[in-house]
Amino acid sequence: MSRASRCYLHILRRVSVPLAFALALVACRTSGSTAPPTQPESAASEAPPKADAKTPSKLAGEPAAKAPKLSTHEYTFAGIRLNEALGDVVKQGPLAQICDVEEFSDDLSLVVYGKDCDEDSFGYGSTIALFVSGQLHDEDRDLPQLIVRAVLWFGDYFDSQSEFPAKAGMSPAQVDRVLGPPTFRCDIGDDDELLHIQFHPEGTYAILRGDKVVGYGAGGNMPSACEDEQWEIMLDIYFELHALMD
Fold first, then answer.
1. Alpha helices in 13-107 (DSSP H)
2. Residue 193 backbone dihedrals phi, psi, to 5 degrees
3. What is the mean pLDDT of the chain?
4. Are the C-beta atoms of residues 110 and 233 closer than 8 Å to each other?
5. Are residues 85 and 8 located together in one domain of the fold?
6. Nearest 5°: phi and psi at 212?
């Protein structure tokens, strides 16, 4: 007699036929079949288990999003901001050590910081030129009220004092990547004392001596012609104040 038949006979001796038939199927499957039990409907509808906490997210390992690039007027230079008044930065701290103030016209002046400025030496291995607009009758009283139109510098002082992306020691190719390719170039000086001015997007500038970047500038108010006295004075500032530090 087969195993299935023995199951049926064993149950039929004890229970009614309909119920015996149902129980026999269950008993025989349990003892003789290897098929997995049917999953209960309630279990099938359950939500899938949560991912293990140690499983990395989809964003794991991806580079962090870069901060948006600032516009030129949003940069600060040791507390100085383009198109705003100089304020108290010329009364206290390093930028109170002014080397010279020169008037270009009734409404434009140049504020210079540099190493060779007697007892008011700025130092820091850098030279800074600020073009400011406004009336200057009394330096102590009027200077904080003047509006900054352009900032130009040689050296690395602003590397740690500004968000300006180009830094001292960068190659021309690196400068082009962070400022954008130059839109215009011109030269100031002659063969012995020659600087190249590169105009980059959004009123930024790079100043080169040969193939070496020696300075930068920011401010959309610089003249587009290098023959202008605002650029010519930068030649004098570099070779008279800064070149000996390079």
1. 17-32, 41-44
2. -130, 90
3. 78
4. yes
5. no
6. -110, 130
Residue partners of 175: CB distance under 8 A and separation at least 6:
166, 198, 200, 206, 213
- Average pLDDT score over residue span 173-187: 97
- Do both 127 and 230 map to the same domain? yes
Show the beta-strand stretches assigned E in 83-193.
Answer: 100-105, 108-113, 127-133, 147-154, 184-189
Residue pointed to by tokens 């991912």: 51
- Which residue matches tokens 């036929």? 17
- Report the range of poorest mean pLDDT among 24-33, 153-162, 207-216, 217-226: 24-33
- Residue 125 is assigned to a structural domain of this protein: yes
Would the pTM count as exceeding 0.85? no
SS3 70: coil
Q: Which of 170, 215, 180 is nearest to 197 (CA)?
A: 215
Does a structural domain hold residue 66? no
Q: Which residues, in sequence order, are bridge partners of residue 152?
A: 129, 217
For residue 108, give its domain range.
72-235
Specify whether 20 is located in the same domain as 94.
no
- Of 194, 182, 186, nearest to 224 by C-alpha is 186
Per-residue pLDDT tens over the stretch 94-136? 888 888 888 888 889 999 998 666 655 676 889 999 999 988 8
